[in-house]
Amino acid sequence: MVNTQVQKGLMTMASILNRFKLKWKKSAKSKGTKSRKFGTFSGVFIPDVLTILGVIMFLRLGWVVGNAGFLGAVVIILLAKSITICTGLSLASITTNIRIGAGGAYSIISKSLGLEAGGSIGIPFYISQTLSAALYIIGFTEGWLRIFPDHVPLVVATTSWLSLLVISYISAHFAIKVQYLIMAILAGSLLSFFLAPVDIPQSSELVGNFEDASFWVVFAIFFPAVTGIMAGANMSGDLKDPRRALPIGTLSSIFVTMVIYIVLAWVLSRIASPEELRTNQMIMVDKALWAPVIIAGILGATLSSALGSMLGAPRILQALAAQRTVPFHQFFAAKSRKNEPRNAIIFTGIFIEVALILGNIDLLASLITMFFLITYGMLNLVVFIQQSMRIISFRPTFQIPQLVSFLGATGCIFMMFLINAVFSIIAIIIIIILYIWLERRELKSNFGDLRGGLFLVLAERASRVAMNYPRHQISWKPDLLLPIDDPKVWAGPLLFIRNITYPSGSIFAFTVQKNENNNTKSALQDLLEPIKRDGVLVSTTVIDDSSFEHGVKLVIQTLSGSAFRPNILFLTIGADNNNDDVINKLVFDAAKNRLGVSILRQHSRKAFGMQRSINLWLRDKSPNWHLAMLISLQLQINWNGTINLVTASQEKGDEGRLAGFLEKLGDRARLPSMTEFHVLIGPFKDVVKEAPPADINIFGMGHGAVSFDFIREISELTKSTCLFVRDSGEESALV
Question: Under CATH, what is the fold of the domain 598-735?
Fold first, then answer.
């Protein structure tokens, strides 16, 4: 009897649908080919409601009430809805601040955190939407087979798929009109259930005993029922006024469906015992005033959810393609004259059918849910970040408390691991891999994003904290202040500079020029680009000044008060003495402003040799060796070389004492085990020739005037490049 009624009902539905489709075709011809946009009700509210009120409502809500009782079910509904409410509020806030564009969540994340972040979320989200459509069609097929058990499942699924594909291909407007019909069927099914005879079982309880599963397991099974709020956002490119439609449509659909779920839970608790609710998933069909309309509602709910996914997924793919985020982007980015992404629709349809033929996609259901939750969480995170940055560009007309976006983001993460920790980890790994892949493609967007500003804000806040704490020797790293006289001819020491700053150091390079021009700035940037590509933090600028000495002094004085000030002034000297006086004055200014100094004298023929061995010269009882040792260690690591610790004395009787001094110092400074110790006896200019051969010799430099003749002479005596170093007093090789 029920089957006969259902068949009649379905035949009536088919007849109405055919007349509805014919009427739509006639009206479409009269209105031409100009694309029309959707309003709040048709473009957001209807798709959201039909996606939220799905199969779980009909087939699992009774089981939830049977285990949790009415009050327990309400707690579960409210807890689940709290996450989507936070996400809906965040969505409402962000969409009243930016022009969202096509792609919904993908567009929002891309415009906030860049194409790499948007794509790494958008691609899995597209796949999830597509596979969701396949899952909904399988759900429809299972419902259909309950009525017609002799029908072939693949034929039913393929027929359903083809019908939905045709509807979505014709146009989104036709699909929305079909959804109106499904909405009417769904409303009728709910009315039929609400009018069911109420029978209050004596064993009914307000709070259940959770006999089949714990509270959190029941919650995890119910939670997918409240997702689906992105169905309207996915249509963002087809909305008349996304700034108005998305907030109103999304939030109203959340609250309306919340009321429906609570009322349904109350009715279920009044018409059946907990035992019936837990064991009979078709309880709503059995208890309804008219069973066929409930079955029609189940079928309609699965079809509407599938149709919503088949409308939204191609639009996400088209938006991804428009920003060249996916392969074959030119094909997928194309749109028809009616603004329909038909290439993306066809590809998505084929993707869905392949999934239906392969079957066994139920295993992916948890992964699909993870990607939905990650998307929701990222939306909340985007809003939370912009609220935290307190930038003037974030001034949405719909304001929400910062706690809302924070709870939405953390709640989504909590739900992911609650539902399935393994699939949560897999989903996060997939997104990280996609982000790395997209970052390597060096995508260029036609809009800005927050990343630069975000890191700048973090740096500024960190600098405020850092200013309250004095620099400590334990956190020392090489931060070079590098004055360059002419970047067009200054290239010799670059690799050496890289090797004393990599990986954690930084370089502030500048040149001084009268009447600054772009060619000089470009030449300076090109000069340092190889070091920058290695990951060393490099900043460059051109100082407009007629005097090189005066310009360098200004930079030293200006940066001395910065939280990220350099700690080493790096200078070079050549064979002539034209700049000796200027260098002497700069060394004096560096000492006044707590800067260490290193002066490089590069050997004209040997340069840096094989970049393997380092001679570090130490004077007995001299306090000026910490910076020299730290630079030696940096070179040893980056050259994968060896250090020779060398000292000299004119007294032969000092040899044993100095050897002990070097060994003790090497131990306290934790020098590499391959370090060798050398004590040389005799006049310094004689023994320097007897030192072990090295690619560079590093010497301490006194705090008086610089002896340039000595520097040039030592370089010739050692037949190597030499570095002369003076401590600032703020570094230590012993910490």
Answer: Rossmann fold (3.40.50)
